[in-house]
Structures are given as structure tokens and as C-alpha cells.
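>> received
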Amino acid sequence: MIKIIRKIMLGGLMAGYTLMSGCMEKDYSDDLSASLDGTNAYYPTLGTVEDVDPITIASDTYGTLIPTNPEVFEKSGADSIGQRVFLNVVFQSDPHNPISTAQEVIVLNLYNIPTRAATDLREAEDNDLNRFGNDPVQITGSSISKEHLNIEFNFKGSGNNNIHDFTLILPEGTELDNRGMLLVELRHDAKSDTPTGWYWGVTSFTLKSIPEYQQNNFQGFLIKYNSGADSQAVWEVKKSN
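>> returned
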């Protein structure tokens, strides 16, 4: 499940990284102007909390990050090992340093990322996809990180603290094709929410819940979804070599 969040663009990622344009739950423009003096840039990244004493982040993009303002993690309920987060950060030194070196950062804002296992229907007694809903969702980005398939998307909602479900399904009969790609399906259940505007979301799905990921010839995912305009839309994401 994911609580709907309004989308606010905070800047694109560096070249070569496919996921994330940025988001936050409130307007941090004053914080940004106060934090940046025109010479420092801020960088968005997904990551996982790997230690809490001190707070240490395993960034999908920049390696190990050590926030100099760790209190923001406790305030956001993100101070537990294994929690996935989206961060906008300012580096205390050159962000292009070797990623084997831990780097100190100031966290400008963070967003807790829901983490879920994929649902494998290939041996399930009930393989009816309709129980997962089929409301429109528009995939806008994706990446395969060390332990997760990360999917960014837009969807319509009301913004009244309603909860939408997003489920990654391994449908009956799916298997690696001759390119090493696995067909999966992203399902959206709006739970009868009446939409009034567009919202943004991102979810990380655990790779360990997808058996084919461990196979040597695995190359990536073909993600089927209902975009609204096309009920059979397919998004392709490949693993990095």
C-alpha cells in the first residue's frame, strides 16, 4: 500500500541512472534556498538504511552515505535497518569520489519508499488477476538495484489520505524469454478513490521474491500495465552489466 503524495520535481538524476525525478511531502523551497549557496548542487537518490548508529545509507547511485543531519530519519520514521528511502542530498565533498568511500551528506528531504515482495501466481490456488485491481497507472521510470526492482509511476487520486495498492505480479505461465527478459505485471487498485488530480509514487519490489532473477541468463523485466490509453502497455527495464 502507498499513501498518495503530490509530485514536486526536484531535479533530474545524473546521466546513466534511470529512476527518479524527485518528490517530497511538503514544499521545501525555503529549506533549499537556505541550504544551497549557488555553488552546491543537490542530488536525488534511492537507498537503503543499512545502519542506525550512526545512520548510514547504502545509496543505489553513490555508495555509502553518512547524513550529517540524522534526526530527519527519526522524524520521518525512517530510522530502521532495511528501510528504503528517496533522498535529495548535498555532498560535503565531490560526489564523484569513488563509491567505495563513505561520503558525508546533508539530507534536504526524504521520502519513505514502500518495499514489497512480488506476488507469484504460478503455483497459487487463486490466480485471478482481477482481485488486484486494474486501475490506470503510468510508469515513468524504473531501475534494478542490488536487491530491488524500483518502479516510479503517476496515477490519479483524490489526495484525501486515501491508500492505493500497487502490486507486482508474476502471472501464470511467465518465464524468461529468449532475450532473458521476464514478463511481470504492475497492478493498481485505487480502492474506489474518486480522482481529482495526478499523484506520484514509487515502490521497491524485492528481487529475492522473483526466482528468475537468480538465473544466469536473466537480463531484465518486461512490465505490463494499464496506462489508461493502453491496457496492454509494456515497460522494459534491463539490469546493469
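>> Helices lie at 29-35, 71-75.
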